[in-house]
Amino acid sequence: MAFNLPELPYSKDAFGDLISAETFDYHHGKHHQAYVTKANELIAADAALQGKSLAELIRSSKGVLFNQVGQIWNHSFYWLCLSPEKTQPSAELKAKIDEAFGSTDALLEKLKAEAVGHFASGWAALVLKDGKLEVTSYHDADTPVAYEGVQPLFILDVWEHAYYIDYRNARPNYAEALLKNAINWDFVSQNLDGRGVERADQKAEEMA
Ligand code: MN
Question: Using CA atoms, how far apart are residues 106 and 117, in angstroms rounded to an integer?
């Protein structure tokens, strides 16, 4: 074994209709797992890639391997960004949000617009860039981990596989529902410390 599929930090039925257990079965159990499996195949075939963390591989690879390790990290972080419990931004984060966007509702509207407006597959994100909050998005397997000076606070999967079971083609409904009801603000607030990347990172175990 090299990289592992991280366990979900909640039960698959914890979100009710918001995110169904069936979505977790496919999204975590099959899509996320497939990125882990493929990355491990590529790493097993090249000794120079072994013993590295996801972040190290993201920052040093391109093409097929980048896509796999980027997606392992992105999904690992995405699961941590969600919570079935109602949470609120910390006072520190709230102050930064108000300064940058005016209000939390305004931030959520901007995140929704970014998620809906992002063409094709990718990720909408709230990041800290040079100390300032910024809403942005990434194409396909691209990830904030790849960018120097960017600290990820929150990401939202906007690949069709994230919403097709529960919301069919309606990405706006998925984005609206999760942004309003499923953000783990405790986790997002914690990431202001600049350690968000490592919270979803892992180092490959020694391979036989
Ligand atoms: Mn996904």
Answer: 16
Class of domain 20-201: alpha beta
Beta strands 150-157; 132-139: pairing state: unpaired
| Distance between Cα 27 and ligand 1 center (Å) | 6
Q: Answer yes or no: are the C-beta atoms of 36 and 3 closer than 8 Å.
A: yes
* Residue 13 CA, ligand 1 centroid: distance in Å: 18
Q: Are 70 and 38 in contact (CB under 8 A)?
A: no
Tell me, in angstroms, the distance from the centre of ligand 1 to residue 140's CA.
10
Summarize pLDDT for 20-72 with one digit per residue, the tens: 999 999 999 999 999 999 999 999 999 999 999 999 999 999 999 999 999 99
Ligand 1 centroid–CA 11 distance in Å is 18
